Fold this sequence. Notes:
This protein is an all-alpha fold.
Amino acid sequence: MNKRQTRSFAVISTAIATVVFLGLTVDSHRQFPKLTNAETITPEVTRGKDVWHAKNCINCHTLFGEGAYYAPDLTKISQLRGAPYLTAFLKDPGRFYDEQRHRRLMPNQNLSDEEIAALIAFFDWVANVDNQGWPPRPILVTGSSIPGTDLTLAQQDASGPGKADAALPPGARPIGGAEDPIAKGEALFRTASPACNACHSIAPGVNLAGPTLAGLASRAEQTMASADYKGSADSIEAYIRESIVSPSTYLHPGDMYSAGGTSFMPNTYAQSLTDEQLDQLVAYLATFK
């Protein structure tokens, strides 16, 4: 091309790129109200956002993957943990973590009940923003290793269905092919909403928001034989299923798992999972002897 043709090409290309950019910008702004659920921004949500900023939560946590990386990303925290757990945690974080055991400490911000409710409302709004799948998964900050393996909990969580057999607790049955009910249950363990592995570890002695599931089958037998058990299960499988669909029937010892006789575990799995899926999840969890 000669100089005139080159100049014309550059001008036309720049004009086209500018038009495309402006069109995409306008289209993005057109979608923002729907993507961000703007109609659900209530005064309480706004108050929660103010609490988030006033307490400098972003100095340790991230939202949508943006912020500090010292503590977990909280984009989906209300879906992963639920309001009862978050309320108890924000009232007294020291019940859940301590500096000596976990090498970090969530400071007690001395939040009022109103501030906690507003902050949870803000988290609910954030969790329902269409963030196009970002961040791709919750950010784990624990560095605890799984006994007997070279995997960290974060690596275990990212290993995917059927790839964590080496990290299974002692006595757990290896997972078979994709059509194996146990394999399907293992996949559900990671993909149910909320995902079970967001709160439960399968490593012995590693308790997260919920108790470890290592040795679950053995503990189920002991629990059913104890005088404290008031449920109706008569087998390991029935006990595990009862624990999933009615988690407050038997409360695991320790005040970090329940409050006021109600388990922090969501009680929505009976509605979100089919009977077949529950059977698959129970079959998987029953392998943890």
